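Data card: per-record layout.
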Amino acid sequence: METQSNLRMTRQRQVILEELRRTCSHPGADELYARVRKRLPRISLGTIYRNLEVLSANGDIQKIETGGSLKRFDGNPEPHYHIRCLRCHKVVDAPVAALPEVERLLDGKTDFAITGHRIEFLGICPKCQAED
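The structure for this 132-residue chain is written out next.
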């Protein structure tokens, strides 16, 4: 299991990262905790939270903080976008490439030093559409 830097890969951190990379559901910490506990029954929810923050700060995973909903985590650290269902709050990867030119559009138009961007698309997932 690889990390972006020389971060010490503890057994707990390794299992958390493996479980996160096994799913494309973008789980919250509670859901990931339930998955990891199957492999490490003595792990605490606090340990999950701490390690998710460390892995996110290290660039090994993405933390998805969307408007008004819980933090979710993505095992894919590469730049990409997400789509969130406005009804059930399901989050999926958007099937489009990241657009680095968006950052260049801001060049010289702001005093900010732009270091990145996030785009979240909003919609109604197929399951919720079918319930209408």
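Known properties of this structure: The two ends are 43 Å apart (CA to CA). The chain has a mean pLDDT of 90.

See the next section for split statistics.
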